[in-house]
Task: structure prediction
Amino acid sequence: MKLDAKSTIETGKAMLGIELGSTRIKAVLIDQDNKPIAQGSHSWENQLVDGLWTYSLDAIWNGLQDCYADLRANVKEQYGIEIETLAALGVSAMMHGYMPFDKEGNLLAEFRTWRNTNTGEAAAALSELFVYNIPLRWSISHLYQAILNNEPHVRNIHFLTTLAGYVHWQLTGEKVLGIGDASGMLPIDPETKNYSAPMIEKFNQLIAPKGFGWQVQDILPKVLLAGEDAGKLTAEGARRLDVSGHLKAGIPVCPPEGDAGTGMVATNAVKQRTGNVSAGTSSFSMIVLEKDLSKPYEMIDMVTTPDGSLVAMVHCNNCTSDLNAWVNLFKEYQELLGIPVDMNEIFGKLYNHALQGDADCGGLLSYNYISGEPVTGLAEGRPLFVRSANDKFNLANFMRAHLYASVGVLKIGNDILFKQEKVKVDRITGHGGLFKTKGVGQRVLAAAIDSPISVMETAGEGGAWGIALLASFLVNNTAGQTLADFLEEKVFAGNAGVEIAPTAEDVAGFNAYIENYKAGLPIEETATKCKR
Result:
């Protein structure tokens, strides 16, 4: 018998997902049909302490407790009841970073988030040693940089984990990590579904002269696949999450995951030959591969899905911020005229008008570099609009150039996958602010990567829903399905969203634009040197 939302919560059949994002901690409660029935949130910001981006342990726990209290309040307001127990729960968080602990469980150094770029020396050395691209933000880069810096705490490390791994450990007592999040600590072997043994051996040899008394495999969390047993909520863990004392111990907890993995789950993009693109303040694409790439590329990170398939990730620091700044200028102009402002209308009018422009933007160029862009080799950025006197300068081309720029760097990275590596993909799902104006961002991205793009309404539910679905997979996968099949049949049930395919004219136009864009990169580089 199908239960209503209130009965689902009362009988302990609901599943909870909590994700700690960069600016918001979000909780989503789902029913047995995997649909959201309640949610809570807490806003927070990282702090720059001694030159490093961090969140304090107090901020983590105050945030989690406030987020859960907000969820409880939402449940009480909607249904008039308390959450006493759950069928399952899961925790996800921003990936990578560095949380080292000693034998007693004390944090040895401030939590260093993915945002820190002080690991250049370590990342370069490890990329060369492993013959594998090791990004600045990965945990192994942070660890080796601390070693290169001769930081005294390194000798006392007993356990090294990510933010999701830390919270899961505190809730369950288990030092484990989902494979997707683990793949952002140290590279994963797709055959063994564990940390790469040859890379572990190379790293241990590299640091052997230091005589630390530990080897890297001893301090990393155990790798788990989606659906595997990751422990149960302890009495202490329940008290730490729900300070009201209502939540009971003994709830099964799924393997903790990273936000990239939960984004893949929330967009039904864990099957090989599928992918997703997140496009907001920053952007990234995740393409699930059938086999490894022929060689490492500095602009492509290799991670995994929550069930262990290899994923090629292109991460871009900039996406819609500069575009939004230009739209705000038009808002100001409208206010000057005394016309009431509806931002959705302004975005809709300008974005749709862009589609009337030339497919190659009439020669206009935009560089949306609010910050540096590693994919194009720039450590700093300056937002820049460039045109020649004989370019076709009109509003449609102006807006189209800025829309193209929002996914231009993403195209450069994905051209390697699709053109050089001949990667095949059947479906790519888009989510994020770029797709809010119906059809426009989709059409631009489809032209950029020459692939059909789907957008689903549910994609807006985000990573907290994704980790709730992984909690559901832990306890409701009674038929022994793969994660991909479970999502396809039990969650999305054939809902592939609305798809837009690229036109030959748009693809040719974007290709012409990107060649001009690449030729003009020295202009952007010069701007970073000349404009402070």
